[in-house]
Design a protein that fits this description.
- By secondary structure, the chain is mainly beta.
- 8% of the residues lie in helices and 39% in strands.
- It has 2 domains: 164 residues, Jelly Rolls; 55 residues, Type 1 dockerin domain (Orthogonal Bundle), CATH 1.10.1330.10.
- It contains 2 helices and 17 strands.
- Strands 1, 4, 6, 9, 10, 12 and 15 form a 7-stranded antiparallel sheet that branches. A 6-stranded antiparallel sheet has the order 8-7-11-5-13-14, with no helix packed on it.
- Strand 2 and strand 3 form a beta hairpin.
- Helix 1 runs antiparallel to helix 2.
- The chain is elongated and about 60 Å long.
- The N and C termini lie close together (9 Å).
- Bound molecules: calcium ion (2 copies).
- The site of one calcium ion (CA) has 8 residues, from helix 1.
Length: 225
């Protein structure tokens, strides 16, 4: 059985100023993304978001994707390649934030130190759109100014958005991502034996799948993930 879920990323709660809570509209004119990294290799379990609503009517549909990062430094932005996606309907009425959670079924492995993004999109017009709450501290985010095909722009803000991510610790030797290290993983390693830069069986990243990687896999054997 997989270990219980750990917190991989957690922002502070919804943040407001003297005129009320702050948030970023998720609408036909703006999609919104928040970046995160994990300290450990982990299989994604859940992600949660604090969402309020420009409308008094709940129900606006939000599409959520978790995406890889497209580049380094100022080029860091969502790649457009979704690792997993969900839809959720806005639960809030007006500017009363509700924490909404999506649960992973694909359980993609998130690698330690690697940048990922959660992206929220909706087809609601701005005046009645969902609003993703700012947190009182956090990492920067980027927003999209047009719904499809436009370039992500850095928000230039140091504030982050309200988001939590959980997952179960996983081993790099769990090559088939089923939560343990066993013969299935050994089989994958053996099929990539030899010179194999970048392949999954190269556990120590030296460009070869060889006895060192086999030893690492055997060390992790049955330890679970
Ligand atoms: Ca496995
Ligand atoms: Ca190796």
């Amino acid at each position: 059985m997989p270990a219980s879920a750990d917190t991989l990323y957690s922002s502070n709660g919804p943040f407001g100023g003297w005129f009320g809570l702050w948030g970023a509209d998720v609408s036909t004119s703006q999609s919104v993304a928040q970046r995160f990294t994990c300290a450990i290799d982990a299989d994604l379990s859940t992600a949660s978001f604090w969402i309020m609503n420009n409308s008094s009517q709940p129900g606006a549909r939000i599409t959520v994707t978790v995406e890889t990062d497209s580049g380094a430094g100022s080029a860091s932005r969502p790649s457009g390649t979704a690792i997993e996606s969900w839809t959720m309907d806005t639960m809030a009425s007006g500017w009363n934030p509700v924490q909404q959670t999506v649960t992973s079924t694909l359980r993609p492995q998130l690698r330690a130190g690697t940048k990922y993004w959660f992206v929220l999109r909706s087809e609601a017009p701005g005046g009645s759109s969902p609003v993703w709450n700012f947190a009182s501290s956090g990492q920067g985010y980027t927003c999209l100014t047009l719904p499809n095909g436009a370039t992500w722009q850095s928000s230039g803000l140091s504030a982050g958005l309200c988001m939590g991510v959980t997952g179960t610790p996983s081993s790099p030797a769990d090559l088939d991502h089923d939560g343990d290290v066993d013969g299935g993983d050994l089989g994958i390693l053996l099929t990539t034996w030899g010179s194999c830069a970048g392949c999954v069986g190269d556990l120590n990243g030296d460009g070869q799948v060889d006895g060192a990687d086999l030893g690492a896999l055997l060390t992790a054997w049955s330890a679970g993930a």
